Amino acid sequence: MIRSTVHLACSLRSLAAGLILVTVLACDNGTTAPIDDDVTEIRLTSSDTFEPADVVISPGTTVRWVNDIPRPHTVTPDGHAEWEEWVTNQGGDTFEHTFETEGEFEYFCVPHLAQGMTGVIRVQ
Ligand SMILES: [Cu+2]
pLDDT tens-digit profile of 70-92? Predict the structure, then answer.
């Protein structure tokens, strides 16, 4: 009972943060253009998704994951050792990795794998 109450409070907080985020993004033309040619940004969202989840980049590109809100997520390699697992629970936290070799690098978020929080970086 206590657990479900905490979960509800947590969900409501996430919802509120999500609404604020949507409002902010709505003022941004809805574009998610990379900051520059060599950096691609992926957001860890309040809806427990990687956004965008499927990314195509060329070798030498840096991917920057950004945690949108104070919420626990991970960026965990799925069956490869391209990077070390990143664990975050702070809004604004960032993690970067530069991909030098071609390949498909799948990853997931440990706490939200059951909700389908997965992503893939296609380097080609
Ligand atoms: Cu997550």
Answer: 999 999 999 999 999 999 999 99
Q: What fold is seen in the domain 32-123?
A: Immunoglobulin-like (2.60.40)
CA of residue 89 to ligand 1 center, whole Å: 9
- Give the global pTM: 0.71
Residue 60 CA to ligand 1 centre (angstroms)? 26
- Tell me, in angstroms, the distance from the centre of ligand 1 to residue 53's CA: 12
Q: Where are the domains of the chain?
A: 32-123
Distance separating alpha carbons of residues 118 and 110, to the nearest angstrom: 9
